[in-house]
Amino acid sequence: MEFRHLGRSGLLVSEIAYGNWLTHGSQVEADQATACVKEALEVGITTFDTADVYAQTKAESVLGEALKGVRRESYELFTKVYWPTGPGRNDRGLSRKHILESCNNSLRRLQTDHIDLYQAHRFDYETPLEETLRAFDDLVRAGKVNYIGVSEWKASEIASALEIADKMGFDRIVSSQPQYSMLWRVIEAEVVPLCEKEGIGQIVWSPIAQGVLTGKYLPGQAPPEGSRATDENGGANMISRWLNPKVLEKVQQLKPLADEAGLTMAQLAVAWVLANPNVSAAIVGASRPEQVRDNAAAAGKKLDAELLKRVDEVLEGVVTTDPAKTESPAQRP
Description:
CATH topology: TIM Barrel
Strand content: 5-15%
Structural class: alpha/beta
CATH class: Alpha Beta
Low-confidence stretches: none
Number of helices: 12
Strand order of the largest sheet: 3-4-5-6-7-8-9-10
Largest sheet: 8 strands, parallel, barrel
CATH architecture: Alpha-Beta Barrel
Number of domains: 1
Distance between the termini: 38 Å
CATH superfamily: NADP-dependent oxidoreductase domain
């Protein structure tokens, strides 16, 4: 396993982070989820990412149980706040009330006394940004949180938060967690340049494009039984954007490139996002321990400029680059 600094912070994270968005508490039974976490630790992954909303809070509980007994200082624990975690109007968003209450609940479910990185899961247009940032800063000063990050924020929103933090003396954002893959590159035009300038690292999710970049979805054929594309609770709606013949045919053309590099298709996809120097870690999920090991093997793999160019040539015409695709709900959900 290789390690990188999270932005310009002093925190080191494993290049491959383990995430439990669509698995723990929903798709995968607790014992299988624990086996995946143990495998992650075995292959050198020390960074674990979750969120209070995953599986209606159950994912945090499963992760907390899976990490029980592991030396707390030996891993980095990330979670998030924003999406609804209850029926009340204040059980969502980035108000001071919801942030403080959600943090305490996450600590309880994760069975720990501190969160290494606490992230705003979306931008909240209904709460003053000053209120949100002060609440996060108070959690840092209370010792409950070590670092602050955001997920799926536009460059303009990140810039506004940095300006307020500098003016008010709050802790600065150190990370951004966007979707990023060979097929989804909306952060490259605006978010990455700003973050490089400001010392913010990317922790990217869905580097394998929900499994499409593994090559298992074939043009003209029905999705494999039991795959994510057939699971309405496992991301079928999100993956559908890529399940068209043009995209799937292009993805199949990546296989010779992966073979040349001595990588699986999934490893090529993960190594590709790690080739971006602003990326601190790539989050991978898994429903089986062998998937964890396969994805983790992408750590430290260097792709040369010629291979990266050929990837671009193969995927020309099917890559999404519009920065406007990064958006938060206009109102709290």
